[in-house]
Write a structure and sequence with these properties.
Number of domains: 1
Organism: marine sediment metagenome
InterPro entries: Glyco_hydro_beta-prop_sf, Mannoside_phosphorylase
Keywords: Glycosyltransferase, Transferase
Shape: globular
Largest sheet: 4 strands, antiparallel
Pfam families: Glyco_hydro_130
Structural class: mainly beta
Protein name: Glycosidase
Number of strands: 7
Oligomer: single chain
Number of helices: 0
Strand content: 35-45%
Length: 127
Amino acid sequence: MIKLKRLSDQPILLPKKEHPWEATAVFNCAAIYDNDLVHMIYRATDISPNGKEGPYINRLGYAVSKDGIYFNRLEQPILLNNVEQEARGPEDPRIVKIDDTFYMMYTGYGGRFPECLTKIILLLAKR
C-alpha cells in the first residue's frame, strides 16, 4: 500500500490574475511523469460560473515540474475552444501514454458532444 502525505495546505497551482484566461480558477488537472519531469495539463477559467460578467470559457493550460511541487507554466492556454463541441471550452483532461504517444481525453463543454480525444506530444517542456 502507498501512503501519501500532504506537504502543504496550499494548492500547487493558483489562478494568475495577469493571465485573463486563468484569472479565476485552476483545477481538475491531469499529470504524467516522463523523462524526469511531471507534465501537468489543467483546466482554467476566466470568471466564476456564477460571475455576472464575462463569457465563462474554460481552457487547458500546461505546467511542468522537476519535483512535482514547484511548477512552471506557459502564459497561453494549450487548447482553445475553436470547434463546435468546445464552444465553452475543454474540461477535465486525462493523459495516458501508449508506446511513445501521449493521448489526452477531455470533455468538450459545448452542449452536444461531451467527449473528445486528441493526440498530444509533450514538447512543451522544451519551450
